[in-house]
Design brief:
163 residues, 6 helices, 3 strands, disordered N terminus
Length: 163
């Protein structure tokens, strides 16, 4: 089967980046691609919501800590808190993107959406894999998201590793 679809990146005025896809039926589909600024703003909203949720969970744990410490070691409690934070991060991004058609609350606020490379909806497997790669984006750990930010700048579609 001969697939004659073509796609290209078009950079317009003011650094607007668009993905143009031509279907086999010669229909032109254009998508505006999210840049580093809108991604950063959406990420900041999501980070604030995650910080709020984690703070609530931490307060609950600290209120219960005196009773918990009679059953578990302090180091085990700290490990459980770290594990809970990691689970919260994973569940936040994967859960929202699966349930809200590729959007987290921050992405929805800025009208962004995770899509497949052909412009269609991202599959569940793609959403899970892209979020597992958030760990690589955050390297080096000392300065969060350095590698992910650099990759966004050097790719023509402003994609991070997970994209």
């Amino acid at each position: 089967m001969n697939d004659e679809r073509s796609s290209g990146i078009v950079v317009g005025d003011d650094f607007d980046v668009r993905l143009e896809i031509e279907t086999p039926e010669r229909v032109q589909i254009t998508h505006d691609l999210a840049g580093i600024g809108s991604r950063f703003a959406a990420g900041t909203v999501d980070l604030l919501l995650i910080a709020f949720a984690f703070t609530l969970l931490l307060v609950i744990v600290l209120v219960a800590a005196p009773k918990l410490l009679t059953f578990v070691e302090p180091s085990a409690l700290m490990l459980a808190i770290a594990g809970g934070f990691s689970a919260l991060l994973a569940l936040y991004y994967i859960g929202f993107e699966l349930v809200m058609s590729g959007q987290t609350p921050g992405k929805r606020m800025l009208r962004l959406r995770v899509v497949a490379t052909n412009g269609g909806p991202a599959s569940a497997v793609a959403i899970v894999l892209r979020n597992l790669l958030r760990v690589a984006d955050a390297l080096p750990i000392v300065v969060a998201h350095v590698l992910g930010g650099v990759v966004v700048f050097v790719t023509s579609r402003s994609q991070r590793l997970g994209d």
